[in-house]
């Protein structure tokens, strides 16, 4: 697949800023995002942007699934919340 600016922005929940962050961590295509997954992508974003929040994690997962993050299944949201709580280091 040939990378073009804005490809990731074509996904639901992914705007210009998140696309730029994904590009900075080496994710330039939808296929690359799908391959790495939302959790690993979020961890890499979190390393450079400490403000990366639970909503951004859900947005990445929703983008991969092609749905608004609000519409993620409850069990997926619970799994992502547990992952976030284990990795956010918010109270360190």
Write the layout of secondary structure elements.
Blueprint: H1 16-24, H2 30-48, H3 54-65, H4 74-87
Helix pairs in contact: 2-3
Describe the protein's architecture and organization:
With 92 residues, the chain is mainly α. It has helices at 16-24, 30-48, 54-65, 74-87. Helix 2 (30-48) runs antiparallel to helix 3 (54-65). The termini are far apart. The model has no long low-confidence stretch (mean pLDDT 92).
**Terminal-residue CA separation:** 41 Å
Structural class: mainly alpha
State the total count of DSSP E strands: 0
Query: How is the quaternary structure best described?
Result: single chain
Helix content: 55-70%
Q: Give the averaged pLDDT, no decimals.
A: 92
In short:
By secondary structure, the chain is mainly α.
Task: Jot down its keywords.
92 residues; 4 helices; mainly alpha
